[in-house]
Write a structure and sequence with these properties.
- The chain is α+β, with helices and mostly antiparallel strands.
- The chain has one domain: Alpha-Beta Plaits.
- It has a four-stranded antiparallel β-sheet with strand order 2-3-1-4, covered by helices on one side.
- A hairpin with a 2-residue loop joins strand 2 and strand 3.
Amino acid sequence: MRAYELMVIFDGDLDEAAVEEALGVATGALTDTGSTIVNTDRWGKRKFAYEIDHKQDGSYVVLEFLADGQDLSGFERSLRLADDVVRHKLIRLPDREATRRGLLGGEATPASAG
C-alpha cells in the first residue's frame, strides 16, 4: 500500500452543504479506485493570497488515503474537470512520513526538529 495526501480547494461561493456534496462525489470516485480514506481534515473557508479564477476564497479539505499504487490519473482528471474544484494537489507521501503519521501501520511518532 502507498500513502497519499490530497488537498482540494472548493469554490468559495458554495455553501457548506454543497461542499460536503462535492466532497462526497470526490471521495466516492476515490474509493471506486479501491483506495481507503484514512483521514479527512476540513480546514474551512480561507482567503486566497491572490485571486484564482476571479475568486477571493475557497473551502479547503485535506484527505489522507491508502492506495495499491494503481494509476490515479483518471481520478485527478475528474478533479480537474469538476466545476466546484478550484485547485487540487495530490502527492505520494514518502514511506517514512506515512509511517510517522501512522498511515502504514507503524507507530505514529512526533516530528523532530531538523
